[in-house]
Write a structure and sequence with these properties.
By secondary structure, the chain is α/β, with parallel strands linked by helices. The chain contains 7 helices and 14 strands.
């Protein structure tokens, strides 16, 4: 006799990015984080905050795979969450129903979750926004999904073309979401400071009227450019 498969597969113990490292990314602009990762790490452009005003966050990922038209894994994730976690839920990009609504946002707040990120859809947007919880989704629909599984919590997933492991650092703002692998957080922190410094200098020069940065002038004056007239 073949046993019925589990409706949920859950990994409860995993290493999270340290709180002191998360603190270094609080308020960081996702564009700077991406630059510090040589252009990598950004989730698909369609995953955007429901409320751009309440969109800034940073925290460790609690991953879940909900699958298409199902949100049982998200409910399980609330039970597994630690304060400061970011629930990152993939639905394999399913767009037939919503995976998160206002009740789920309230459950998340009650669980100490600081943000929800999904490639699926959301509903009850007014209620979600009222909670103040940053919720990022691939879109909005009034449709509702089932709660039957199968699903996973705490296992590696792929969302928005990016691989995410539980415990990785997730950073979001109105431009979108960036994933920093836990093993790369120290290196990206150093590069982030360098990017911020360089960006500050560029902004200062632009404010003074600069039209073209020096590196571009050097290219234009080099043999790498063929002028036809």
């Amino acid at each position: 006799m073949i046993a019925d498969p589990p409706v949920l597969t859950i990994r409860r113990k995993f290493d999270r990015v340290e709180p002191q490292d998360v603190a270094k990314f609080l308020g960081a602009q996702t564009v700077h984080v991406v630059d510090a990762m040589d252009g990598h790490g950004a989730l698909d452009y369609r995953i955007k905050p429901l409320d751009p005003v309440s969109a800034s966050f940073a925290g460790p990922a609690l991953t879940c795979h909900a699958g298409a038209d199902d949100n049982l894994a998200l409910l399980a994730a609330f039970a597994m969450a630690e304060p400061g976690d970011v629930i990152v839920a993939t639905t394999d990009g399913f767009t037939g129903s919503a995976v998160v609504g206002d009740l789920f946002a309230r459950y998340a707040c009650n669980s100490g979750v600081i943000a929800i990120v999904t490639d699926g859809l959301a509903r009850d947007t007014a209620g979600i926004i009222d909670t103040g919880l940053p919720v990022f989704a691939g879109g909005v629909t009034p449709g509702s999904s089932a709660r039957s599984g199968p699903g996973t919590v705490g296992l590696p997933i792929v969302i928005g073309r990016i691989s995410v492991s539980a415990g990785d650092l997730i950073v979001g703002d109105r431009d979108g979401v960036v994933v920093v692998p836990r093993s790369e957080v120290d290196a990206v922190t150093v590069r982030l400071d360098e990017v911020r410094s360089a960006e500050s200098n560029f902004e200062a020069d632009a404010a003074k009227g600069l039209r073209v940065p020096d590196f571009m002038q050097a290219i234009l004056q080099s043999k790498s450019v063929l002028y036809l007239d």
